[in-house]
Amino acid sequence: QLDDHMLYKTIDEEYGLEEMCNNLVKDMNEYGVCVLDNFLGRQKGIEVLDEVKNMYSAGYFKDGQLVASKDKTNNRNIRGDKIAWVDGKEKGVSNIRFLMNQVDAVITLANRMVNNGKLGHYKIRERTKAMVACYEGKGSHYVKHVDNPNRDGRCITCIYYLNVDWDVSESGGLLRIFPDGWSDRVADIEPIFDRITFFWSDRRNPHEVQPAHRTRYAITLWYFDANERELAVRRYQRDCESLRKAA
Ligand SMILES: Cn1c(O)c(C(=O)NCC(=O)O)c(=O)c2ccccc21
Ligand SMILES: [Mn+2]
């Protein structure tokens, strides 16, 4: 359940949140992508980054998927992404939890605007845990893909970046989205510190992470559309049932 943190906002934060949601709804309806900067502010952002770094040095990240290396000669596979799942209740992740609550508040308010069909007609009630991702540089990347190609319920992808003083010209690591609405253009999003990006998770937004040459951290949340999610869970249960019977 998305906790409703609207009550604890001061007036100016309320206004800030309101304005942020208007931007989100407008951009999502117009482009299917929305980029907001200075989402938490420098101090909070650094506190989140420190928690992620601590998680990393404590070994919470699982080896990412192996990406077959281009040069077959030394057959060294480039380590792709490394990820760790956080539900926010663990010890030592209070700042990541704060980030999750802030994004929930933005999505909850924007979803209220949904009622007059402003945010893609989705009914958003739940989300995944936070996926904390690390690309260790050395050219690690993520091939072009669609997050939710087969209606698993996820409707909005939300990525918060933690990379201070990131310079794409030397470190790469661009998020490149190929919005299906625009055949001739792409959206290049630099993974800079305290930036948050939202985009529709389905086939409208194929995207890739270009090779990173410096450690690149990001935290992803996926929000579910209630109806699509319910159907996906039912389908999954039916599949399991038929597999059990077949066994
Ligand atoms: C590590 N990582 C990802 O980085 C992206 C992704 O699209 N990232 C975009 C970005 O970081 O800008 C993913 O979509 C993804 C999906 C499943 C498992 C891991 C994944
Ligand atoms: Mn993705």
Q: Which structural category fits the helices and strands?
A: alpha+beta
Average pLDDT rating: 89
Cα radius of gyration in angstroms: 19 Å
Give, in order, the helices and strands.
HEHEEEHEEEEHEEEEEH
Strand content: 25-35%
The global form is globular
Give every kind of bound small molecule, once each: the ligand Cn1c(O)c(C(=O)NCC(=O)O)c(=O)c2ccccc21, manganese (II) ion
Number of helices: 5
- Report the biggest beta sheet as strand number plus sense, adding barrel if it closes: 7 strands, antiparallel
What is the helix content? 25-40%
Tell me the total number of β-strands.
13
Q: Which segments are poorly predicted (pLDDT under 50) over 5 or more consecutive residues?
A: 1-9
Summarize the helices and strands and which ones pair or pack:
Layout: H1 11-30, E1 33-36, H2 42-57, E2 66-67, E3 78-79, E4 81-86, H3 94-114, E5 124-127, E6 130-136, E7 140-145, E8 154-161, H4 168-171, E9 175-177, E10 187-189, E11 196-200, E12 207-212, E13 215-225, H5 226-246
Antiparallel strand pairs: 1-11, 2-3, 4-6, 5-13, 6-13, 7-12, 8-11, 8-13, 9-10, 9-12
The structure holds the ligand Cn1c(O)c(C(=O)NCC(=O)O)c(=O)c2ccccc21 and manganese (II) ion.
Task: Give a written overview of the molecule.
The chain is an alpha+beta fold. The chain has five helices and 13 strands. The chain has helices at residues 11-30, 42-57, 94-114, 168-171, 226-246, and strands spanning 33-36, 66-67, 78-79, 81-86, 124-127, 130-136, 140-145, 154-161, 175-177, 187-189, 196-200, 207-212, 215-225. 33% of the residues lie in helices and 27% in strands. Residues 1-9 have low confidence and may be disordered. Strands 1, 4, 5, 6, 8, 11 and 13 form a seven-stranded antiparallel β-sheet that branches. The chain binds ligand QNM and manganese (II) ion (MN). Residues 145, 147, 207 line the site of manganese (II) ion.
